[in-house]
Structure formats: structure tokens, C-alpha cells
Specification:
mainly alpha, 3 helices, 52% helix
Length: 81
Amino acid sequence: MRRERKENTARKTVRNAKTMFRFAVKQGLVSSNPFEQLKGATIRSDDNRMLVERETIAKVLAKVKDPTKRLLIALARYGGS
């Protein structure tokens, strides 16, 4: 599956299968969960992260007049980690 999908997509599919089979075991529909030993947790990836420069945010804030939107933009840029 990992050859056809990205790592986190494969892990999410495994996690979903584990959940369904765990329920099936509890209901007595199957005797064991074949996915129990597989890792289903997603891993953090910084591939899609991008830093928006202060100058760019300043230009955006100069164009936006609504104070609520300005606050949201500023918090998104400067309030995050």
C-alpha cells in the first residue's frame, strides 16, 4: 500500500481497519484482529510547511481593512509556533 499511497494515507487506512476489526472482535464476529500489530499512527511531516515572511504579511495587512480579519491574519502568522 505504501508504494501506491503516501505514508500517512497508508497509516490512516490501517488505523481505520484496526478500529473496525477491534469492534468486530468485541462483537464476536471475528476471533482476532489481523491489523493489531501494524502501526496506524500518523507521523508529522514538515513537507507542506512554509514560512510567510513578515514583509508579505505587512502587505496583506495594509490591504485588509476589516479589524477582525486583520487580527486573524496577524494571529495566524505571529501567534503560532
